[in-house]
Specification:
single chain; alpha+beta; seven-stranded mixed sheet; four-stranded antiparallel sheet; 15 helices; globular
Length: 493
């Protein structure tokens, strides 16, 4: 199958309206990733004594606006970044063994498993081992294929430069890369939307209730564009041209939180689902227990964004709800609450901030719609006033994430304070509780000045162990300007 290069630089083959397939590309010596893939190929040969059959690249992402709304059904506006997970893969029809090796052997130990009998056990405390994310992707394809699944052996070497636990979706990129590699080995048609959907679903095996944004942009990303990604009624990605000349900067606070190791992320999911059911019951919907996403409630009651916000303010009047409050309003027992409404790692919850979480989601979904609309207006006519509105929306998003969703971090707030001093609009991106901020600068030159200020005022004052690690590279791996890149790619040499 030959690669068909479309106008946005994405290698894809169209087999029907809007359907894109990942296709094999020849890796060219002038490619920016050529040297990295060469090094990974050499590592593969050293480990396994043979050459890889193909290579996979799946990017991380930065979300420009639309945080913690995807699992409620609302659209987001991310872009793929150049930082990626890379795999070198060879299949072995003669056995069912998986052999995983990581280029960073000292940090990530190798792993071997029989694909006839593999299972994913999660630790009671701490985060899952790195290879468990990979097994999630394999299990996702196994579930998708059902009776057609064949336990074909795979030898895989892994490399990656997506910062861990930084809000750039390193874990989702790993899962998505495993999905793509396994699908290729199994001989599946590589429909980008289908693979994104499988990748989103199978993160549940690692204990994360993903909304689907990370996986969607990992597959649908295009050079030069952000993507407005909708999840309802079905997955749809629309390229959005960002304002001419603007440059986005990602800055890693280096405060880390692993989504799968902590319950904070899933607590927010649970609070949103409880708020949805509470409001659905108030609206008199007989199937209120089945409505778990705000967008489904919005559709069932034919509400617009403003009406929904009013519904929340009028009916979720307390700042903190107890278990007793929720059981009384929903007419359920505490045992029902634990078994039917709370997930395994949220059963310890005693208090629920339904009003704050609901208000953030509905207001943030409105900000995403406004951001896209302004970008589309700017594509046909320039307006400095409209550009300023984009910056205001980013700042409002951060304020809401800090105050209503409570997912910022003191180190993130230091980065935001420096950004404000530099008159740069910035917000926390990703799940939060540390990780990265994304900032919008007026030009590449302005981005350079901004990065210098961050290095001087934030990174130069890091604790000694972090300085030792990051100062030799002048912090270039933790703060950088970025441009929108392509989604998942599959290469042969």
């Amino acid at each position: 199958m030959s690669a068909n290069r479309n106008g946005n630089g994405t290698s894809a083959q169209s087999l029907g309206a809007g359907i894109e397939f990942v296709t094999q590309q020849q890796l060219q010596p002038d490619s920016k990733i050529y040297e990295r893939v060469q090094n990974l190929g050499a590592f593969f040969e050293k480990q396994f004594g043979s050459k890889a059959d193909f290579f996979v690249r799946v990017p991380g992402r930065v979300n420009i606006i639309g945080e913690h709304v995807d699992y409620c059904g609302y659209s987001v506006l991310p872009m793929a970044v150049s930082q990626s997970i890379f795999l070198a893969v060879a299949k072995d029809e003669d056995n069912s063994e998986l052999h995983l090796r990581n280029l960073e052997e000292s940090k990530f130990e190798g792993y071997d498993e029989d694909l006839k009998t593999f299972k994913i056990d999660l630790p009671k405390t701490g985060g899952p081992a790195w290879y468990k994310y990979f097994l999630c992707g394999i299990k996702g394809i196994q579930e998708q294929l059902g009776g057609k699944w064949r336990p074909i052996g795979m030898r895989i070497a892994v490399d990656g430069n997506v910062p861990l636990a930084a809000g750039l979706s390193s874990s989702s990129a790993m899962v998505s890369s495993a999905v793509l590699a396994t699908a290729q080995v199994q001989g599946m048609q590589l429909d980008r939307r289908e693979l994104a959907s499988i990748s989103a679903k199978c993160e549940q095996y690692i204990g994360t209730h993903s909304g689907g944004m990370d996986q969607a942009i990992a597959y649908l990303g295009r050079v030069g564009c952000a993507h407005h990604i909708e999840f309802h009624p079905k997955l749809k990605g629309t390229p959005v041209t960002l304002p001419a000349g603007k440059c986005f900067v990602v800055a890693n606070s280096l405060a880390q939180k692993n989504k799968a190791a902590s319950s904070d992320y899933n607590e927010r999911v649970v609070e949103c689902r409880l708020a949805t059911r509470w409001l659905a019951k108030i609206k008199g919907l007989l199937n209120w227990q089945d409505i778990v996403r705000f967008i489904d409630l919005e559709e069932a009651c034919q509400m617009d964004n403003e009406t929904f916000e009013t519904l929340i303010k009028d009916n979720l009047t307390k700042w903190v709800y107890t278990r007793a409050d929720i059981c009384k309003e929903l007419g359920i027992t505490e045992q029902d609450l634990e078994t039917k409404f709370l997930s395994a790692n949220t059963r310890h919850m005693e208090q629920f901030k339904l009003r704050q979480r609901a208000l953030h989601v509905i207001q943030e979904s409105g900000r995403v719609a406004k951001f896209r609309q302004i970008c589309e207006q700017l594509a046909v006519r320039s307006s400095e006033q409209d550009v300023k509105k984009l910056g205001q929306l980013m700042r409002q998003s951060h304020e809401s994430l800090r105050e209503l969703y409570e997912c910022s971090h003191p180190d993130v707030e230091r980065l935001i304070a420096i950004s404000n001093e530099q008159d740069v609009s910035a917000r926390v991106t990703g799940a939060g509780w540390g990780g990265c901020i994304v900032a919008m600068c007026d030009s590449i030159e302005a981005a350079g000045d901004y990065i210098k200020a961050l290095k001087r005022d934030y990174y130069a004052n890091l604790p000694a162990h972090l300085l030792e690690r990051h100062q030799p590279s002048d912090f270039n791996e933790v703060v950088f300007a970025t441009l929108p890149g392509n989604g998942a790619e599959l290469y042969v040499k």
